[in-house]
Amino acid sequence: MRFVLAFLTIFMLNLGYMQIPQPIYFGLILGYGFFSLVFFIKDKNQLNFILRNNLIFFIFFIIIISYLKTNNPNTSIRVVMLDILNWIFCFFYFSNFILFSIKKGFNPFILVAYSIIVFIILNLLVSLVYNRNESSIENLIFKLITGITINKQIFSIGPLSANHSAIFIAMLSPFILLVKKKKVKWLSILATFIALILLDNRMSILSIILSVSLFFSLNKVKLSFVTKIIAIIIPSFVMILMVVLPLLAFTSDLEMFSRNSEEIMTANSRTLIWASIIEVISTLNMQTFFGSGDYGNLVHSTSSDYLSLFVNFEDSSVKSSHNTYLQIILDKGYFTLLLFYVFLLKFLNKLFKMKNEKNTQLFIISVIIFLLSGTTEVLFGSYYFPITFYLLVMAVYINNKKNNIYEN
């Protein structure tokens, strides 16, 4: 039952984004919660475990508080409470499952690998007979590969945002390499490739390529230098893109990867959004230090400067900043951004100390995919919580993993 619950966690986390009837959602949460609590109560030393991972759990509760303060006018308090109850059950149970796995010498991310494989295959099969929400945006990657024009796909299991689905799949895809059966592994890699093409998120594919390249580059340098590089690049990446992208717009070789030159110049209007938000967060006050709650951009009048860019999109009035680090400041403040950097540096330090272990290398690649993708999408918090969830549970596993544990 432990393994079944852990396997189902990926689907439980996606329930809140699938617009299912609330009574059914509540019933599934209660069912999952009932069985998970049995194991949680049974296992001892839970308090010591939480205290040993206090920063990770503290960040989790900051996310909960920020969601409670959401500024999204389309989200009711009932939905918020259901989501939070679901997240708490999932997070505490899966953390407990990680502790159990460590004691038994089992790598819990083998189970995550099978979960994401089933998640991808189910979505591909369902998409053959049912389109949850027909997108009107042309699939650029599919056209580039095949010459055939189709619209980008939105999967039925998961969020309405194809970008978030693609990044989620990209982030967990390295763990597919943990699968021992070669046929299953290669078929899963093929299914992942097809899914990413159908979802048409260029950043998810680019982040996989760059993360593998960055890993082998960073693997050769000193550990302290790696953390310094990350600490400098993450906060400044927005500024780098705002300077570099307008220059790339005049490079004819890159036109095939975009719908028009303006899309390259502004990163599909993202640099216009960032310029507006930087103006807001440059002033230090209570709102920017502690945040305004999820969709904090809606609290500030400058949000109207860029919301007009999305007039042809559904829910155009509640679009986010399209950058994880800027949105953290708007939602949760500089205080949480600082904590998040401390968390990342500690996490990456531990990962790179074990960088010669084959399985640990998959975690490093996954985290780098998260960091790179976070420059163009909001990946932290309620916007698509499964991404944040797996980042945090990865940290829980690495934080408690002993070097002498048998690597599956």
Describe this structure as you would to a colleague:
- Helices cover 67% and strands 0% of the residues.
- With 408 residues, the chain is mostly helical.
- It has 18 helices and no strands.
- The C terminus is likely disordered.
- The protein is globular, with a radius of gyration of 21 Å.
- α6 packs across α9.
- The two termini are 20 Å apart.
- The protein has one domain.
Q: What is the ordering of alpha helices and beta strands? A: HHHHHHHHHHHHHHHHHH
What kind of sheet is the major sheet?
Answer: none
Number of extended strands: 0
End-to-end Cα distance, whole Å, is 20 Å
Q: Enumerate how many helices there are, as a single number.
A: 18
What's the number of structural domains?
1
* Estimated share of beta-strand residues: under 5%
Q: By helix and strand content, what is the structural category?
A: mainly alpha
Radius of gyration: 21 Å
The low-confidence runs, each spanning 5 or more residues with pLDDT under 50, are 242-250, 259-267, 403-408
Assembly status: single chain
Tell the overall outline: globular
Helical percent range?
Answer: 55-70%
Mean pLDDT: 82
Q: Which SSEs are present, and which pair or pack?
A:
Elements: H1 2-15, H2 22-42, H3 46-52, H4 54-68, H5 77-104, H6 109-129, H7 140-146, H8 162-172, H9 182-199, H10 202-218, H11 223-248, H12 261-266, H13 270-281, H14 286-290, H15 303-307, H16 324-353, H17 358-373, H18 385-400
Helix pairs in contact: 1-2, 1-5, 1-6, 2-5, 4-16, 5-18, 6-9, 8-9, 8-10, 8-17, 10-17, 11-16, 17-18
